[in-house]
Amino acid sequence: TLLMKRARVKTFVLYAALFSVLIVLLLCDLYIGSYSILTSVGLQNFSNFFAAENGRFQTEIGSSFTNRSLFVSMADINKTATNIFFVETRCSTEKTLEGYLGNKGFVLTARQSCAVESTALTNPDREIYVFHSCPLDDDFLHYSPHFVVQLFRYPNVHVVRFNNSQVFNGSPVQRLFEKKLLENSSYPIEHSSDVIRLLLLWKFGGTYCDLDVVTLRSLEGLRSNWAGAESDGAIATGVMNFEPVGAAHYMLQRILQHINYYYDKDGWSSNGPLLVTPFIIRECNVLKVEEAADRCLINFTVYRRYVLYPIHYSQVRLLFDSILGPQAVKMVKTQSYSVHLWNKISRDLMVNVGSTQGYALLAEQFCPRVYQSCGTLF
């Protein structure tokens, strides 16, 4: 009898164990099935969301720009002092091109894009040409950051794909190109920019702007033929204007001829402000920069520092400060046409979107589309 009872207990335990295993397997099957369904739904929802966002982005590109061509050739540019030029020279030499051979999109950063937008926003009646040296597909917007796409909502912004032969041939600095002197420069990107900006102003006339400026108001308030003092002893070349004819134009030609034969490959600014300043002082027939601002004897104006360079490079950190920045912005908005951010010094300084840093406040007002499209950091 005892043995029979023990057998019944063992049988009961065995059946209970088997039943428990079946219950566990059933629950696992239900869980896995539910998880699969939920995962499938989740992935489908994510896929739908991604497709919708991508579709919205593609629709935005298509609807905004199908009515015009974004590209123009150099032959399409008129000779007029109202042109505005930006120049991107990362790929302007064979040495610097190597890193961008697979590139398809615009290489501008958010801050560089801000320079273009602020100028387009404040000068809607002027044509703006962005000279782009790196490879660029016809459908480059599909490969470019969203903040770049925003630039082409402005109908006066155009892209010019170029290489150095197009710019240098037939110019006063053709020898510089033929002997590949820029290829051997210690600063190929910077020196290419120094020379090409002068060349474009010589060829077409207009205003050149650096890609690290913020334009604050229409340039209509300035005369033709001008540059700005960045200090008591230097005239900067970050923002300047020349007519395509006249005395100032021929001064520009003489500057280019000097570069052609006396090009300095080792001086960082030797083909920029260090060269242009003494030329302008001599042509104006004065002894100092401050005198050129008062009485230049040719049709050329040297604006005082507050007009174009109100923040000296030694003070640029003010525009990255949340406490002092707002006061600096208030000051420059009152009296200046542009602000230079001195990228060589400030490029590693962080700007938080939505902060009260001076640069953030300027971007929010003067390049709002780029600023709102760049994420949490500007």
TrEMBL record:
Pfam families: Gb3_synth, Gly_transf_sug
Lipid bilayer topology: Single-pass type II membrane protein
Keyword Transferase in annotation: yes
Segments forming domain Alpha 1,4-glycosyltransferase: 246-373
GO cellular component: Golgi membrane
Source organism: Cuerna arida
Entry protein name: Alpha 1,4-glycosyltransferase domain-containing protein
MF terms in GO: hexosyltransferase activity
Subcellular location: Golgi apparatus membrane
Gene3D superfamilies assigned to the protein according to its UniProt record, in alphabetical order: 3.90.550.20
Keywords, ordered alphabetically: Glycosyltransferase, Golgi apparatus, Membrane, Transferase, Transmembrane, Transmembrane helix
Family the UniProt entry places it in: Belongs to the glycosyltransferase 32 family.
TM annotation in the entry: 12-32
GO BP annotation list: glycosphingolipid biosynthetic process
